[in-house]
TrEMBL record:
<dbReference type="GO" id="GO:0006633">
    <property type="term" value="P:fatty acid biosynthetic process"/>
</dbReference>
<feature type="binding site">
    <location>
        <position position="167"/>
    </location>
    <ligand>
        <name>NAD(+)</name>
    </ligand>
</feature>
<comment type="pathway">
    <text>Lipid metabolism; fatty acid biosynthesis.</text>
</comment>
<dbReference type="Pfam" id="PF13561">
    <property type="entry name" value="adh_short_C2"/>
</dbReference>
<comment type="similarity">
    <text>Belongs to the short-chain dehydrogenases/reductases (SDR) family. FabI subfamily.</text>
</comment>
<keyword id="KW-0276">Fatty acid metabolism</keyword>
<keyword id="KW-0520">NAD</keyword>
<protein>
    <recommendedName>
        <fullName>Enoyl-[acyl-carrier-protein] reductase [NADH]</fullName>
        <ecNumber>1.3.1.9</ecNumber>
    </recommendedName>
</protein>
<feature type="binding site">
    <location>
        <position position="15"/>
    </location>
    <ligand>
        <name>NAD(+)</name>
    </ligand>
</feature>
<feature type="active site" description="Proton acceptor">
    <location>
        <position position="160"/>
    </location>
</feature>
<dbReference type="InterPro" id="IPR014358">
    <property type="entry name" value="Enoyl-ACP_Rdtase_NADH"/>
</dbReference>
<keyword id="KW-0560">Oxidoreductase</keyword>
<feature type="binding site">
    <location>
        <position position="95"/>
    </location>
    <ligand>
        <name>NAD(+)</name>
    </ligand>
</feature>
<feature type="active site" description="Proton acceptor">
    <location>
        <position position="150"/>
    </location>
</feature>
<dbReference type="GO" id="GO:0004318">
    <property type="term" value="F:enoyl-[acyl-carrier-protein] reductase (NADH) activity"/>
</dbReference>
<dbReference type="InterPro" id="IPR036291">
    <property type="entry name" value="NAD(P)-bd_dom_sf"/>
</dbReference>
<dbReference type="InterPro" id="IPR002347">
    <property type="entry name" value="SDR_fam"/>
</dbReference>
C-alpha cells in the first residue's frame, strides 16, 4: 500500500450518507493517506446521524450544504477554508438523486418537475460547485475535482431513466469546466464511471440486484467495489495523476469494453435448460 499519497492536501468530500457510500470509503482512504478535509451532505441527510460518526473517526467536521443551493456552497467553502486553514487541493462530488427513479416513474411517464430536480441535484450542482470555487478562488493550482458517473451516460439502459441524461450532463460539465479551469489555474476536472455498487443511491434503481449480478458476470475483473473506487479517487487526487483532465474514467472491472463473457453465455445456456 502506498503511504501519505495526500500528505499536506486539503479538500471537501460530499455525499457520505452511510458506511456503504462511495464518499464514506473515500473519506477513510483520504484520511489514511494523510489528507485533511471536511465532510458535507444535504441538511436532510444530517438527520440520519451516521455522517457525524464518520467525522469523529476522521477527526473532522460536517458542514451541511444542499448542493443545489449556491448560497449553501458559498457558506460551505467559507467555513471549510476557515477550518482547514487554507484553500483546497481536491473536491469530491458524490451526489445523485432522481425523484422519478425513487418514486418508480417509468421513462415513458416522467414527471418533468422531477426531471429538473434530477438534473439539478445530480449534474448542475457539479457546475455550481465549480463555478463558486472559481469565483471565490478557493482551489489551489493543480487541484483535482472528481464527480461520479455511470455508463448509462453514454449507452442505453432500460432502468436508469432520467439519471442517464443527468450523468451525460455531468460528464459534459467535467469536459467544459476542465477546459476553462485548466487554462485559468491548472485545475483538473474528471468524472469516474463506476460499476454498480450496493449503496442507497444504487439500490434505488429498479432491478438493481439482478443487474449487479449480471454486471459482475460481464466484467472480466468483476464489479469494482466502493472501497476500490475510493482508492482510485485518492489516486486521482494525488500528484501522480497531474496531467489527467477532462476525462470520463471507467472504473468498472472492464465492463465498458467487454462485448460478452463466456460466463454470461454459460449462465444464459443454463437458464434455458
Ligand atoms: N451506487 C452505484 O451503483 C453507482 C454507480 C455509478 C455511479 N454512482 C454515483 O456515485 C455517487 C455517490 O452515490 P453512492 O452510490 O455512494 O450512493 P449514496 O446514496 O450513498 O450517496 C448519494 C449521496 O447524495 C447525497 N445528496 C442527495 N441530494 C443532495 C443534495 N441536494 N445536496 C447534497 N447532497 C445530496 C445523499 O445525501 C447521499 O449522501 C452518485 O453520483 C451516484 O450516482 C453510483
Amino acid at each position: 500500500m502506498p503511504e501519505n499519497l495526500l500528505k499536506g492536501k486539503k479538500g471537501i468530500i460530499t455525499g457520505a450518507l452511510d458506511e456503504n457510500s462511495i464518499a464514506w470509503h473515500t473519506a477513510l482512504k483520504a484520511k489514511e493517506q494523510g489528507a485533511k478535509f471536511v465532510l458535507t451532505n444535504a441538511p436532510i441527510a444530517m438527520r440520519m446521524g451516521a455522517i457525524q460518526d464518520l467525522a469523529d473517526e476522521c477527526g473532522t467536521i460536517v458542514i451541511p450544504a444542499d448542493a443545489t443551493s449556491v448560497e449553501d456552497i458559498e457558506k460551505l467553502y467559507d467555513e471549510a477554508k476557515e477550518y482547514l486553514g487554507g484553500n483546497f487541493d481536491f473536491l469530491l462530488h458524490s451526489i445523485g438523486m432522481s425523484p422519478n427513479v425513487r418514486k418508480g416513474r417509468s421513462y415513458g411517464d416522467l414527471n418533468y418537475d422531477w426531471v429538473q430536480k434530477s438534473y439539478d441535484v445530480s449534474a448542475v450542482s457539479f457546475h455550481k460547485m465549480l463555478q463558486v470555487a472559481e469565483k471565490k478562488d478557493v482551489l489551489n493550482e493543480w487541484a483535482s475535482v472528481i464527480a461520479l458517473s455511470y455508463i448509462a451516460a453514454e449507452r442505453a439502459f432500460p432502468f436508469y431513466s432520467d439519471m442517464s441524461e443527468a450523468k451525460a450532463i455531468l460528464e459534459s460539465i467535467a469536459r467544459n469546466y476542465g477546459l476553462r479551469y485548466g487554462k485559468n489555474k491548472n485545475v483538473r476536472v474528471n468524472t469516474i464511471s463506476q460499476s454498480p455498487t450496493k449503496t442507497v443511491a444504487g439500490s434505488g434503481i429498479g432491478g438493481f440486484d439482478d443487474f449487479f449480478d449480471f454486471a459482475a458476470l460481464a466484467s472480466p475483473l468483476g464489479n469494482a467495489s466502493a472501497e476500490s473506487c475510493a482508492e482510485y479517487i485518492v489516486t486521482m487526487f494525488s500528484d501522480f495523476t497531474r496531467m489527467v483532465t477532462m476525462q470520463n474514467l471507467f472504473h468498472d472491472g472492464g465492463y465498458s469494453t467487454t462485448g460478452i463473457t463466456q460466463e454470461l453465455i454459460d449462465a444464459y445456456v443454463a437458464s434455458k435448460k
